[in-house]
Amino acid sequence: MADFLMDFDDYTTTTPSINDSHKQTSNCIAVDYSIDWLLFMVVTGSILAEIYTIITIKKNKSLQTYQNLLILKIVWSHLGYNVLGEVLILLVTLLAESVKSEGYCFLRNLDFLCLDMTYYLITMLALDWFVTQYHPNFYQKHLVAFRRWGLWICCLVLLPEALLTSVYCFAATSTVGKVRHVFQKVSFFLCFVSVMVMLIKKRRRPLSMESRKYQYCFTVSWAFLMMCLPRNIYYVLMELYLYAYRTVFHPALIILNDITVAISLSAPLVMVYVLCKFNKHFKVAYTGCCKKKRAETCISDNLENGNADVRQERNVVMYSVDIDQ
Where are the transmembrane segments (predicted)? Predict the structure, then answer.
């Protein structure tokens, strides 16, 4: 998540001179404070949604299919992007002041690699469903290879980015940010275009209702990438066109950046919503656990009430016997 909070500085190296009144300055501070709180709540909600997904899949064996385990890898990757980078960067800043520059650079690389891995795994999830439905013969022949080597192929694709950005951490730290952005944008738009092609073919050849059992996999992938699209378009436009006008539109660009960041950070929330809505097994696992606890509570309450009734009947019988005597 570190790039969300600091990427805008890569494009705005200078702060424009502002000669506003004290009232306007106070309004800007209030707006920034509100936006920061909004981003904090969105980040917290996303992390909680990812933790909920991990616990739900781990605790329910019925959900541990290949598709859901791939979703679990996606969630772990994005959770690492949200949490681990910030925590490790803070530790390096506090405990390793002498190597802070190189350590910070490597941790930023780790953040970007986690995000790119999320994009590729999301694409693998959509591709797995697409090949299963539209090319079943190919899928049956190469099922083992497709599922065994898919994750390693993603790691192999990320290897050039990891090596090159690591070299730049020592050679040219001033340009490593742009190198990261180039790799990240190429990875995203490559995945987005791939899923878009699948979507077009899916619309042209709709499936029967019986074949839509795992269609939520494609829906999750498409929704996740669509939530990340505004942020990536914004940074591309910033690099190509808006960079020259950063001093003129500086406040508006900051607000636009925060909006795209909030939309991107909401992707895990949308993913959990899609899972609960379209995957009945995921929803049943959640509601079933609650129903089971409620049923156990009701049974225990009924037993206690039944024992109380029995004790009450015994007291009534003994009281009637004493009266007869």
Answer: 37-57, 69-92, 112-131, 151-176, 182-200, 216-237, 249-276
